[in-house]
Every structure is written in C-alpha cells, then in structure tokens.
Amino acid sequence: xxxxxxxxxxxxxxxxxxxxxxxxxxxxxxxxxxxxxxxxxxxxxxxxxxxxxxxxxxxxxxxxxxxxxxxxxxxxxxxxxxxxxxxxxxxxxxxxxxxxxxxxxxxxxxxxxxxxxxxxxxxxxxxxxxxxxxxxxxxxxxxxxxxxxxxxxxxxxxxxxxxxxxxxxxxxxxxxxxxxxxxxxxxxxxxxxxxxxxxxxxxxxxxxxxxxxxxxxxxxxxxxxxxxxxxxxxxxxxxxxxxxxxxxxxxxxxxxxxxxxxxxxxxxxxxxxxxxxxxxxxxxxxxxxxxxxxxxxxxxxxxxxxxxxxxxxxxxxxxxxxxxxxxxxxxxxxxxxxxxxxxxxxxxxxxxxxxxxxxxxxxxxxxxxxxxxxxxxxxxxxxxxxxxxxxxxxxxxxxxxxxxxxxxxxxxxxxxxxxxxxxxxxxxxxxxxxxxxxxxxxxxxxxxxxxxxxxxxxxxxxxxxxxxxxxxxxxxxxxxxxxxxxxxxxxxxxxxx
Amino acid sequence: xxxxxxxxxxxxxxxxxxxxxxxxxxxxxxxxxxxxxxxxxxxxxxxxxxxxxxxxxxxxxxxxxxxxxxxxxxxxxxxxxxxxxxxxxxxxxxxxxxxxxxxxxxxxxxxxxxxxxxxxxxxxxxxxxxxxxxxxxxxxxxxxxxxxxxxxxxxxxxxxxxxxxxxxxxxxxxxxxxxxxxxxxxxxxxxxxxxxxxxxxxxxxxxxxxxxxxxxxxxxxxxxxxxxxxxxxxxxxxxxxxxxxxxxxxxxxxxxxxxxxxxxxxxxxxxxxxxxxxxxxxxxxxxxxxxxxxxxxxxxxxxxxxxxxxxxxxxxxxxxxxxxxxxxxxxxxxxxxxxxxxxxxxxxxxxxxxxxxxxxxxxxxxxxxxxxxxxxxxxxxxxxxxxxxxxxxxxxxxxxxxxxxxxxxxxxxxxxxxxxxxxxxxxxxxxxx
Lengths: 497, 433
Fold this sequence. Notes:
The complex is a heterodimer.
Chain A: H1 8-35, H2 37-41, H3 47-55, E1 61-62, E2 68-74, E3 80-83, H4 90-93, E4 96-97, E5 101-102, H5 104-108, H6 110-113, H7 121-129, E6 138-141, H8 145-155, E7 160-167, E8 172-178, H9 186-195, H10 204-207, H11 216-226, H12 236-240, E9 250-252, E10 255-257, H13 270-275, H14 279-289, H15 292-301, H16 329-336, H17 346-357, E11 368-372, E12 380-381, H18 396-412, H19 414-417, E13 426-435, E14 440-450, E15 459-467, H20 472-488
Parallel strand pairs in A: 1-6
Antiparallel strand pairs in A: 1-2, 2-3, 4-5, 6-11, 7-8, 7-15, 9-10, 11-12, 13-14, 14-15
Helix pairs in contact in A: 8-20, 11-14, 11-15, 11-18
Chain B: H1 13-40, H2 48-67, H3 75-93, H4 98-116, H5 123-126, H6 129-146, E1 161-163, E2 166-168, H7 170-195, E3 197-200, E4 203-206, H8 211-228, H9 231-249, H10 252-272, H11 274-284, H12 295-307, H13 325-328, H14 330-363, H15 367-391, H16 409-431
Antiparallel strand pairs in B: 1-2, 3-4
Helix pairs in contact in B: 1-2, 1-3, 2-3, 2-4, 3-4, 3-14, 3-16, 4-16, 6-7, 7-9, 7-15, 7-16, 8-9, 9-10, 9-15, 10-11, 12-14, 14-15, 14-16, 15-16
C-alpha cells in the first residue's frame, strides 16, 4: 500500500476554505432575512402584500337601518372581494381598490374597516403568527338608503349634488353627487373615470366648489341682522323696509344679474328682494350699511373661509382667503353678488342652514355614528367629533330673523315653494349662480322643514345644487323629494341591535 | 478484525447514534408533512411520500448495519434529513411531482445500498478509470446527439437521456466519474508530481508534463460550457478538479493558475454568450430589471425577506410567486417557510456533511481513497455553495441544484451514490487502526 504523501495541512486548508464559504453564505442569509428584509418586503412588486390585503376580511358599511352598503365576500380562492349592493350610495361609501386606494367612508374609516384599529396587540400578534386572516370591524353610517335613493332618483342623472341632514343630530341622511361611479367596476373603468370631463370621481357635496351666486344674499342678510342692536321683532323691521329699484339689473364684468323671476307688482320690501333673489337692493344696502370688513367677518363666522368638516370625510381645500379690507370696487361688487373670488361647497351651505334651523348653534355633521368590533353584536357609538359643546354660529335672534326671511321666501316665491311636501311649511331659499367663461348657470335650493309635532329645534335640512340649470324650481323639486323621503322614513322603529 | 468480517454487535455506539439521528430526522420530516396537510387542507393520503421515506431510512439503516457496521454515523442521517425536507418541499410546491420525487428517493436509496454492496476495496473503480471516464463521456455525447428534454423546452436539451418515462441527466453521473478518474490518475502520479518539479523564481512548479491533464480537464469544461451555456456546471467541474490537483501536488501555484483560467473563461463567456452575460448582469445589479430579466432573482430575495427569522411555516408563505421555485430556488422557498432558522439548518447540515467527508479523507490510508473522499466532499460542498450563494446574490446564479433538496431525480440519485461511496470509504478508514 502506498503511503499517503499528501499533508493533512492541505486537506485542512481546503476544509477551512469551504467552511469560510459556508459561513459567508450564513451571513448573507442573515443579511437578507433580517437586515435588508423590511425594505424588500415593502417593495411594490412584492405580491405578498397584495395577497395579504386580499385576505383581510374587511368590515361592512351599513346604513342606519342595517342595510349593507359595502360588504366583503370570500371568493373560491380564499381571497376577499369588495361588493357594493347599492350603487346609489357610492358618493358616501366611496370605494376600496387594491390599485387605486380608498375614498369616502372606505377611506375615512379604513383603519377600523381593515382591523388595524379596534383589535388588541396580543390578538394581532397571534393572528399574524397563526396566519389568520385579519378581520375588520363594521361601520354604521348615518345614511338612510331610502332617502339616498329617493334623492338620487330625483336628480334623474343630472349633474349636481344634494345633501340631507338631520338636525340637531347632524346625521347625514343622504349625500348624493352626480355623475357618479360604480365602485364594483372601479378598477376596470378607472382610466375612463379619470379621463371623464364630467368628473364622476369628484364628490360635489364635499369638494365641489361652486359660486354662491344669489345664495350670498343669506350671508348679507345675516350681516344686516347682526348689525341691528335689537331683533326682538324677529327682524321684521329690517325685512319690511321698502327698497327702491327692486329688480334693477346689476352688472358684474360682462354678466348682467337680475331677479330669479319677476316679482309681483306689490313686492316692495327687502323680504321680497330676498325671496326673488334680486341683487340690486342687497348691493345698495351692503354698500351703504356694511363695511367690507363686516362682510368678511360674517363670512368667517358662517364658516365660509374654513374647510367644512364631516367626521374624517375628505373635503375641499380651504376656499380663497380674502384680503381684509382693500378690495377693488368691482371685486367687492362681484363678491357681494356671489360671483366673486369666493366659492363654496354644498356642505358649507348645509352647515349654515343647519345652524339657522338649530337656533343659531352650529351642528357638527357626521356620516358615521357607530362601529362594531369583529365578532361582536354590540355597536359602540362614536363620540361626537371634537365639539361636545355646541358653538354659536349665529346669535339666536339672527337665526330667528333669518328663519322669518326663509319662511317668507318659501311662501311667496312659487319656485321655492315647490320644495314643500303637502301639508308642511318649508323654510327655504332659491338662488342662481353663474360660473366660468360660458356663464354656465347653477340652481341652488337650501332650506329645511320642521319635523311635525316637535319643538323648534328638530328639522330636516336639504341643500341641492343643479349644474347647467337656469330654473330654480328644478332644484326645489329635488329638495321636495328629499324632504318627503326623510319625513316618511323618520326614525327607524327601534334602534339597531 | 478482517475488514470483511460480519459485524455481530447489533448495538454498536455508532449505529445507535445513527438510529437516534434518523429518528430525529423522521420526527422533523413527519411533522412538516402533517403541518402541510393541516395548513393547506390536503388529504391525509399525502402522508405516503413521508411513509415511503421512512421505509427508505429504516431499510437503509438496517442494511447498512449489515454491510458497513463501522461507517460514519452522520452521513446517512444528514442525507436522509435533507432528502426528506426536499420531499416536504416538493409536496408543498408542486404536489403533482411528489410521486415522481418519491420514486427517485427509492431509486436513490437503492443506488446507495447497491454501491455499498460492491467490493469494499473499490479497486473496481480505481483500475478501470479510463473505462468509466470514456463511458461517461460517451453517454454525454450520445445525449448531445439523441437526447431530449422532458419539458421539450429550455437549454438543457442535450442533457436528458430518456429511458421509458424516466429521464436521467448523464452530466450528473459524469460528475462522479470525473472525480473517480481524477482520484485514480492523481493518486498514481502523485509521487512524480511532488518530485519532478521545476524552479520558477521562488516557487516549485510541477513539470509541464502534468499540465496535460489540467488542459484536458479545462477543455472538457469548456466543451460543457459551450454546449450547455452553463457557467455553473463547468465551474463546478473545474473547481473540484483544482482542489484535487492541489491536494495531490501541494502546489499553491497550480491553484492560482487554475483560478486565473476560470476568470479568463468567465470573461470570455461573458463576451460570447448572452445567457452568461445576462446572469452576470442580473447578479451585479438586479434592481433596475426587477420586472424583467431579474424578476426571478429579486422575487427570490423578497421570499427570503418574507421568511424573516422563524419563517411563515410550511404551506403558509407564497414561494410560488418565484418562477420554477422547486428546482432553482428551493433554498429561497425554505427561507420563506422555515425562515433564517431553516436555511441556517440547511447550511449547517451541508457543512457538516462536507466536513465529515473531509475527515474521511484525512483518515484514509491510500492516496486514491483520500482523493476520492476529498473530491466527492468538495463536489457536494461547492455545488451547495454555488446554488446557495447564487440565491443569496453572493455570486451569479447558476442552474445547479441544491443537493438532496431540489426537485430532480438525477441529482438526487447522484448525491445518494456519492454518500454511498463516502460511507464505503468511512468504513475502511474506521476499521483500520
């Protein structure tokens, strides 16, 4: 047998080299699975994130009666898909898309719906470890599907927006923005929705910026009332004061503004000017009695210079903040006729009208009033958002005087009266505004009805804006449908379980 | 005691240790399969590959006790552990292939036992080295001419030799035959290599006559490279060859020259072959092409990251996102579902396997046996390092399999034959005082 002439040292060297290589592999494994792991896992092309998202049993969104507005359904391959049984509610529920994110209630309550909120840490850790699909909690909207559908039907596919509120709860009963979208087919139709000139993805109630037009007369009226030392006559003195040149035209740039409809021959007062939306008397009074600063303060007090809030709902960016005093006479005329730099959302008007109906106190608006943890039958009411004490938006006397003006307007102007359901008294105002170089007309209606058999604090508030509409009666007709539906479907027979 | 005498002691400490290790491996493999069935809601019938595996382990242990009573007690359990783990992985990733992999496991165990049934002095290997080598090469060239790929696609067209429904890659067999040939050739010429040297400056260099085999090997590797466009297998051949040449000659300069040749060949391949260039580019910077050429590599790294320290658990990750995960990226799949703990275990198992093989070499009493044990161990080790390093972006990815674990019958069979040969060699080293 040959003796081995290889030195053991050579074998040891090769072995050592291999072991060092194995050690480097072990270090690289540690690097990728520990050090570099968070960045790698967060990469967009990590399909696991999408799969994990699809496994989440997202909570349902229900209307105030428990009717499902958005539900997650398990498909054959153990993944969840989101379904929206009522397309009419899309403006409020919004959408949930793996590709395009979330909007509406889906966005505002995302953390709750996907279960990031409302579960304790131990449960979360255990679910992670055991690969249990995360389960989110349910959300109960204040929305009333019947009212929502009635309003959507009344709009008849017209571009526009409508919001229905309950006062004093601030619960939004309907929130309709048209044209709208079908959240069930959002992913497939996204490109055309985004490209659509009519902006179906824009929520016109919360984010649609409109000229107030003659709706600004309500602001001026509030300013005039507020300037009075005493309003014990519910503003009768101011409203009854005769005005000259009731229906005189007002020129703003190349726009000629007049009354919404020809007032009757015996109409001579400021109340008539308000009822028929005549701009000239308001312009004259404002220029003689109100400083620019007083108007600005009133706008601020009425929340027109702020972003309106709707319990976490995405709303419009702050409207243009106006310079304190120094504005040109032309710009001041444009502002006072609602055709200037100020644009507002229907939500702004809804807040003002709700405050008038609520004795001048502001009403915090909400679209969701309760949440329910996964596997629980018990709804947890959500605390009022921030404001526990109601803040005064208007002095009580000013609110009462404005109510008089609204009552008179709804009585004498048949276009506004068209909003009244049979046997009810409407407090309302119609307005017209013009926007853009085409001077496209917009018709406004805003007002409220008192709930029958109650004291003077409970009401249904409706704000409607119709795009490309010159006849204010059309907006009032939509409002009437909203009032009828809301009054018929008052409080549900018993509170949901 | 004569080497061939029958071992009567049923409970030698070595055998008891092997039995204990096999029992531990069985517990692990069985637990994996049960967890898989529960996690994926599969039928309990899917336990059968593991039961067959258990049968192989038991039969192997029993028959090895009779044939090689003083064998190394770690080799067989480690091989079975990795093969069982691989079986779990195939059942999890591509259930349709589990039956075939189980069949290959039976064939592999049979081959291992078959090898150990041959005369233990291994003269049959050493004497007929040219026959083995030429036979292997002939098989290889035959498949170049008439071979087929069972999938009918891919670059490995020539590597497959179909016999009925079973396909075998002759290049896998060639790995062993090359090591056998080199061990035999170098053992015979070792004395001359160490004595017949030239002075070249401060270094001792073997005479140029020994450059002959070096260049022969190198040209075989280049041929393999050209035909298969596979830097991996060629590099593997050549690295193993260099290690054996170094062990035989003790000349560091040969090693350095060999490494230079590898770099040269790699640079040339990078210039000449798009496939090679692509692999190198993807390795150097995969991120810009993460959606295209580097998709597989990036997704495999994401899979490793998703595993974290303890892994997602068998059947609970998403390793299926990586294309052809069951062959090239078995290591990444283990990382995702068993975590860092899992892949470090695989690294450790393979490292121990290699170290035990080198220990057998160190204890060998004959240059042929020493070189054979060392060559086979280096072969296993370098192949493991190449695929693990490739998956972890340490080196360009090559198409070699993770020994015992990856899907592929030829590779499994070959690795079992290697373990069989190492077991034979360990018996000899252990029984000679």
